[in-house]
Every structure is written in structure tokens, then in C-alpha cells.
Write a structure and sequence with these properties.
Tetracycline Repressor, domain 2, mainly alpha, 5 helices, about 190 residues
Length: about 190
């Protein structure tokens, strides 16, 4: 905020960040409603709630870093805000896919062993569930993250201010929906 005499002028960065945080909070509520829907199903697997926090956090971190890298590449003019596959964009997409699969596999294995240790329940299907949910989320979130980052940049907004909360919110909603689809697919 800039204070000019008695008037308070809110600069553009503050407006962008504030609006994106409001959207993030609203998206968190939507994700919670999807999770509530998941709770009402009979399809709950033992150990799913061990997996869920890490899975939700993973999406915000991985796709947030993709958006940050794209924002930096756009600001430094290494790429243009158009869907044209070039070497730099392709490398970033493959890095995101690789990160997603490695972390999903790790999360599935950790959830499996914690479920085995805490609840004394053998559910190796948790590992498959994380993989299926990661594939579903990747198919949605990669194009969405790239398109949104490019769109904000074209419209004159700073993707670094907006994309963090946006990707976290969309990641939460898409993660819960992808887990629900994965559970329905497995069950």
C-alpha cells in the first residue's frame, strides 16, 4: 500500500495478490466440499487420509514451481506466451511429469507402510491409487497451468503474484476429484 497524504492508494500488485488469495480461499472451500462428498461414499480406503495431505500439498508445490519457472521464462523473454512446443517448455513439462510420478510413488509407499503400521491393514492399492490420481491430475493440471500462466502474462498481470494461490486452489480441487475418480476406478 502506498499512503498519499490522507488517501490510501492500493497498488496493482496488492490487488492481484489479494484477489488471488480470495479465489484460493474459495477454492479451498470447494475442495472441502468435494472431500465431504468423498467421506459420504462407501469407497473409502483405509489409509486414504494418511495419503491425502501429502497428495494435496504435492500438487501445489509441483505445479506452483512450474508456473514460477514459466513466469520467469516469460519475464526474461526466453519463451513467448503461446502454446508452441519449444525445447525449454518441453523440458519443464517433462520435469513436472517426472516429479509428479516420483513423489506420487513415494507418497503411495509411505501411506502404505504407515497404514500397515498404524492400522495394521495391508492395502497396497494405495500405491496404485496415487499413481492413477497423479495421471488424472497431470492430464488436467499441466495444460491448465501453462494456459493460465500465459493468459495472465498476455493480459499484463504478473504470473508470479497470481499463480501460486491459483495453482494451489486448482490443485486441491483437481487432486480430490482425481482421488475420487481413482477410488471409483479401483473399487
Amino acid at each position: 500500500m502506498k499512503i498519499l497524504g490522507r488517501k490510501v492508494a492500493i497498488d496493482r500488485d496488492f490487488k492481484e495478490i489479494f484477489i488471488s488469495e480470495i479465489i484460493s480461499i474459495s477454492g479451498g472451500l470447494i475442495a472441502g466440499m468435494f472431500l465431504l462428498n468423498l467421506l459420504g461414499k462407501q469407497y473409502l480406503l483405509s489409509g486414504l487420509f494418511i495419503l491425502l495431505p501429502g497428495f494435496l500439498e504435492m500438487h501445489g508445490n509441483i505445479f506452483g514451481s512450474l508456473a514460477a519457472r514459466l513466469g520467469t521464462l516469460l519475464h526474461t523473454k526466453h519463451i513467448k506466451p503461446i502454446f508452441k512446443f519449444n525445447k525449454i517448455l518441453t523440458i519443464n513439462i517433462w520435469a513436472t511429469i517426472l516429479l509428479m510420478f516420483i513423489v506420487s510413488l513415494f507418497l503411495g509407499i509411505v501411506a502404505y507402510f504407515l497404514n500397515l503400521y498404524i492400522f495394521n491393514t495391508n492395502t497396497p492399492i494405495l500405491i496404485l491409487l496415487t499413481f492413477i490420481a497423479a495421471v488424472i491430475a497431470l492430464l488436467i493440471e499441466i495444460p491448465l497451468t501453462i494456459a493460465t500462466t500465459f493468459w495472465f502474462f498476455k493480459k499484463g498481470y504478473d504470473p508470479d503474484d497470481i499463480m501460486g494461490p491459483y495453482v494451489t486452489t486448482t490443485g486441491d480441487v483437481i487432486s480430490i476429484v482425481s482421488i475420487l475418480i481413482g477410488v471409483l476406478f479401483i473399487a
